[in-house]
Amino acid sequence: MRMVAARRTGPARGVRWGLPPPQPTVSILRGFERRLGNLVEGFFASTFRSGLQPVELAKRIMREMDAAKTVGVREVWAPNRFAISLSEEDAGRFAGAEQALATELQRVVRETALERGWGLVGPPKVTFEVDPSLPVGRFRCQAAFEEGPEELPPAEPAAGAATLVLLEDDRPVETYRLGPATTIGRLPECDVVLADPAASRRHARIVHRDGAWRIEDLGSTNGTFVNDEPVTERPLEDGDRITVGTTVLEFRRA
User: Fold this and answer.
1) In the chain, what is the greatest distance between 2 CA atoms, to the nearest angstrom?
2) What CATH class is the domain 162-253?
3) Which of 116, 117, 169, 251 is deepest in the core (most CB within 10 A)?
4) How far is residue 141's CA from residue 52's CA, in Å, rounded to a whole number?
């Protein structure tokens, strides 16, 4: 396995120096915080009332991906390896959920790359180390390119692309890009993780097959509804509203 330190390159044609980097996507960060809270219920509420917050690490990783990306003629590659140095006190506070935090930060790397159409030369990897010279609340993040068995090529807009929009009081609060098969439920490994006790652990799945999008109920306890009608399996149309437990999601064609 080969690891190459990230370095900035000159801008591609049409890219100007001096422009601010893209701001961290709100939906990615909100999903990160919600999933982390579900994984370690109550831990962050009691441990991180003040001081360094996990979301600060996610924001920094997203900025480092943008700053260290390499721009080619037809593609953009972002770093996939991040070494985060923490103060001794902050490292001690994170110790109870370090693995969960690393896993969720790695998901942030992948989601950011997918959203912005960047490629990864290997699977995302986030590690932590202690730096006694750092004061409380300060940290460092070193980005690098580490080749691995898994590669995420730069994304191109796909025909038939679609998203799910999480609604609260009829207002969009989070957007999920759909893959060939997207699972919805309470389990952390689901693609769309819901903090909804009325949803099953693996509640439903949306698949793209033969040019069409379909939703399938996965034997959920409370059922899956599309436009208030119970369904086992059915095609989806732009604007359909899906109810999973008490959660409402709107299907949108890109």
Assistant:
1) 60
2) mainly beta
3) 251
4) 14
